[in-house]
Specification:
Layout: H1 13-16, H2 31-43, E1 63-68, H3 70-73, H4 81-97, E2 102-108, H5 124-127, H6 138-148, E3 152-157, E4 161-163, H7 177-180, E5 185-188, E6 191-194, H8 199-215, E7 220-223, H9 237-243, H10 248-270, E8 275-278, H11 284-289, H12 295-300, E9 310-311, H13 332-341, E10 349-350, E11 352-354, H14 379-389, E12 394-397, H15 412-422
Parallel strand pairs: 1-2, 1-12, 2-3, 3-7, 7-8, 8-9, 9-10, 11-12
Antiparallel strand pairs: 4-6, 5-6
Helix pairs in contact: 4-6, 8-10, 14-15
Length: 427
């Protein structure tokens, strides 16, 4: 049975009734009344400001997540519902056994869908051919299996990406947006993307979110760091000229923020207990100036201006990570406090993405322990411990296949054991 969204009768007035208006008594108030008010104010202490109502979308405890990407789906057996269900069951047992509570499942990687949609074609990951019906609903199966184990599922969407290379995906369905709305699409190298400057394209993305929330009992919507695909001015030169704006970078940031805001509002209209979060690059300069995602402003936006429930920057670097220049700015011990120091609204959480794919391979730093630091069998557990010591709200591992399966490196088993022990899940 499809796990569809159910309406909730929970009173959410506290979330949407946040505006307080001060109404004056009128310009013609008599002097006696004014004097009475002054005496009353002196006699009665000023009430203490009340703390903001907690965000119902945020978990009460630590958020412990893992990304399940299209790379994981490529290894799954989609030949039948039973085969896919068995694969999901094994994967989710591993996630629960690690002490995780959330799965970030990539369900729209290339302008396609691993679920039944009237807006996007079936993903080629299901059958090998984009647009071909696998004969069952993968997302429905995943939700059933995850929820039966007490795991939340956030639908991970790539809002703009249609193609990352000439071979991925290997083909387009006739109803892929690259074919039906080429005016919305821009090319960057071999990649194809919805143009962030096209309002109609952004609206279509929002419609896709609404459809997903209407039909599936997902626990949230998740975006990663795929926003503007390039800094080249040619991709949106016509739209920029027509806008009358003077600052290209600021205008691009507003294009992205407008989409993020619309998705947030759509999620909250469906159910205020659902999460909407974004995982930007761990380098805030790149976020702002290369992808035009104004992430620090999103962190600070509050009340009716809120646009996210959480941010999860990808801090995929180890301790002592060193650039060729000698800078250690992005070493784990240095970049995490930078993010934690940014102003953050009361109802917005800050989590951190950890590079499980670095295990056994290293992070490419110029420091001599770039590889060995990721081969200890406890690199991820140490980072989690440090995040807890700094009162970070949670963390996510990129990605599942880096810790489990035939392709996982040798230290992965030890990393999993260390995480289990840390999370009270010893075998």
């Amino acid at each position: 049975m499809t796990q569809q969204r159910k309406s909730k009768t929970k009173d959410v007035q506290g979330r949407f009734g946040r505006r307080a208006f001060l109404c004056g008594a009128g310009a013609a108030v008599c002097a006696g009344a004014g004097l009475w008010l002054r005496h009353r104010q002196q006699a009665e202490p000023t009430p203490e400001p009340q703390p903001a109502a907690p965000n119902p979308a945020l978990p009460a405890g630590e958020w412990r997540a893992v990304w399940v990407s299209y790379l994981e789906w490529a290894q799954m057996d989609f030949s039948s519902e039973a085969a896919f269900r068995a694969g999901c069951a094994q994967m989710l047992d591993n996630c629960a056994g690690l002490g995780l509570n959330t799965v970030l499942a990539q369900v729209r990687p290339f302008g396609d869908a691993l679920y039944k949609s009237s807006l996007f074609p079936w993903s080629h990951l299901c059958t090998g051919t984009q647009g071909a019906d696998p004969g069952f609903d993968p997302l429905d199966v995943l939700l059933q299996e995850a929820h039966s184990r007490g795991l939340s599922v956030e639908a991970w969407l790539n809002p703009y990406r249609l193609r990352s290379s000439a071979a991925m995906p290997p083909n387009f369905a006739a109803d892929n947006l690259a074919n039906t709305h080429p005016e919305w699409v821009c090319a960057v190298g071999e990649g194809l993307y919805l143009n962030p400057a096209e309002p109609a394209a952004a609206d279509y993305v929002v419609q896709g979110v609404a459809e997903l929330l209407q039909n599936y009992a997902v626990d949230g919507i998740h975006f990663d760091d795929y926003f503007y695909p390039t800094t080249e001015s040619s991709i949106d030169a016509a739209q920029f000229a027509a806008s009358g704006a003077a600052d290209l970078a600021a205008w691009r940031r507003e294009n992205v923020t407008a989409l993020v805001r619309a998705v947030h509002d759509t999620v909250k209209a469906a159910d205020p207990t659902l999460r909407f979060g974004i995982s930007p690059q761990g380098n805030p300069d790149n976020d702002l100036n290369s992808q035009y995602s104004d992430v620090t402003a999103w962190l600070a936006a509050e009340g009716e201006n809120a646009v996210i429930d959480y941010l999860c920057p990808q801090v995929y670097w180890g301790y002592g990570y060193t650039l060729q220049s000698g800078s250690t700015r992005f070493a784990f011990e240095n970049i995490v406090p930078v993010w934690l120091a940014y102003p953050r609204a009361e109802g917005v959480a800050l989590y951190f993405g950890l590079g499980a794919y670095r295990v056994g391979a290293g992070d490419g730093g110029a420091n001599p322990d770039s590889v060995s630091g990721w081969s200890t069998g406890g690199a991820l557990a140490k980072q989690v411990q440090d995040l807890r010591a700094q009162d970070a709200g949670g963390w996510a591992l990129y990605r599942y296949g880096s810790l489990f399966g035939a392709g996982a490196p040798e230290p992965a088993a030890a990393e999993c054991a260390a995480l289990r022990a840390l999370n009270g899940k010893e075998a």
